[in-house]
# Entry
Amino acid sequence: MQRELIITKDGSTSFFVPELNENYHSSNGSITEAQHVFLKHGIHFYLSRSPKSQLSVLEIGFGTGLNAWLTWLEAEKMNLFISYVGVEAYPITNQEVAMLNYAKILHHEDKNAKFEKLHAMSWNEKHRLDSSFELLKVNRFFEDIDFVNQFDIVYFDAFGFDVQPELWSVSIFKKMFDSLRPEGLLTTYACRSVIKKNLQEVGFTTQKLPGAPGKREMLVGLKI
# Structure
C-alpha cells in the first residue's frame, strides 16, 4: 500500500493513500481527532459508566500507532492498566514510523521512545511494555477477527465508509459486538445513518456525540 506523508491542521502528521484517496486520520488534526474520539469518548466515557483500574481495548486499524501511544500515556496518567490489541493488515514501515511527529507536536519528546517501542515490538505476540500497558499487534484482516467476550472498549478506526463500505457492514459489527464484554463500548469518528443502523442491527445501543473538529457528530455503540 503506497502512503504519502501529510500534515494535518493541528500540525500532526498522517498518511494519504492514493489508491483509496483517503487519509489515515482527519485532515483537521490527527492528534485532535484521536484525543476526542478514542480518549474522551472511549476511555473516559467508558470509565464514567463503569469505573475500573484495568481495561482491555481492541483497535480496528492500528495504523500509525497514534491511538495506542496516546492510550499508553493516558494509562500512565490515570494509574490504569490497559491490555491493548491492535489489528492491522498493512503495517507501516520503520521508515514511515520515523516520519511521524506526534511526540514533538505534544511536546512529549521524552515519550517518543514509547512510540518507537510500540512499533519495534513483534507482531502476533503479546508484550508487557511496563506496569501500565500490554500490547498485542495482530497482522490480520478485520473480517478474520474472532475475539469473543474479551474487550471493554473497541476503537473502530477503519478507513471511511466512502472508500471501504464493507468494513462498516453488519457482519463486521457483529464481530465487534461479540468481542465486547457486557457493558462494553465501541467508539468511532463516523456518524452516517447506515452505520448507526448496522450497529443497532447487531445489538448495539447507539448514541450520537459531538464530533471532532470538522465533524458535527460521532457515534458510540453500547453493549447493554
